[in-house]
Amino acid sequence: MPHCSESQASPSESVEENANLVIRLLIRRPECLGPALRGEGEGLLRAIMDANKMSERIAAQRLGAEAEGAVPIDHPMPAGDDDEDYIDTGAAILAFYCTLVDLMGRCAPEANVIAQGKNDSLRARAILRSLVPLEDLQGVLSLRFTLSNTAAEEGRSDIPPGLIPAHKQSIVLFLERVYGMDDKELFFSLLEHAFLLDLRAATSLDKSDGSESEMGLALNRYIGNSILPALIKHSNFYSEADQHAPLLDATLHTVYRLSKCKILTKGQREGVSDFLVALTREMQPAALLPLLRKLTIDVSKLSEYTTVALRRCGKYYGTSSNTPGTASEEEKRLTMMLFTNIFDSLAKMEYDPELFSKALPCLSAIGCALPPDYSLTHGHEEELYNTSSCSEGPYKPMPIDTTE
């Protein structure tokens, strides 16, 4: 940014004064946005897409994988694998714009200050909105990451060239602080076209052997720091969203699958759990039967990767699409299976204080929800003991024998 020395502030200056100084500099020197400035250039989305494409072409040329017939990009190559002076210009442009957007987002007035209607705060927000349109933010968040399945196997980092999760994290910060997600249609549009795609990408990078993926770790940080907090904050949108039922169902099962990823940190796993509880609390019980079927299988073998399921049992029978306070026969059957599988799984384990502290409230909630005289029928007991964790890992078809 030109004249960046003007932005140096003494320790005694407040955060608000520093933010106002940055915004004043942006007003005086908007050309620091370069091609990302609407009017002067094609906007932030086009600038990020072009930088991403440049970085991918540079990486492809380095690996000798440039598409046949493509014009080689005029960019210096590193002297060797350990060339510390080498700079990927495309990645540098991406980092610059996303860092600048992050800075502008942090300079935005707080929501409580905006609510007071102060002219300076309203003007600052209007200026920031004029610099980066909402459509560009949506477009950047909708861009897909380039995932590599071979890099880790070859001993290379699987972090892709160009766009990475940290870049999107800056965009979400700006979006939340400058525009907000209080519009219901905007929220569901972001969920469908941006957040859900990144959640699915994170689940695809989890490995059954528990080995770490650098891109998987980066995606989980982005999801834990930006996506899940936003989805939890606006959980009130889930209660009356019949037209978005398929989207919510896909999100529910994707995040539940994410909860079993082995490379999640404890804090990230708690964030996933908080979101699942927030979402299922708002959804109708009838819409949760597929998840309940999965839970009955997963809790058959409790571990640190399946404890998220234990938090799912509260308030399940609070409402119903038919008569308030009642449950269907299938709900009762599945819940009884859930109770029995949790109980049997705990009985086979050595005492684990943390695990038992999650399981016992769950058993208590289920016990209070079921009628005192309810029990499984003979046929359902057989189904109970034949459950297995076949949903773990990649799908393996098991065709039936038709030779007889």
From TrEMBL:
The gene is RyR_3. It comes from the Eukaryota. GO terms for biological process: release of sequestered calcium ion into cytosol by sarcoplasmic reticulum; striated muscle contraction. Keywords: Receptor. This is Ryanodine receptor. The keyword Electron transport does not apply. The keyword Phosphoprotein does not apply. One of its GO terms (molecular function) is ryanodine-sensitive calcium-release channel activity. GO terms for cellular component: calcium channel complex; sarcolemma; sarcoplasmic reticulum membrane; smooth endoplasmic reticulum; Z disc.
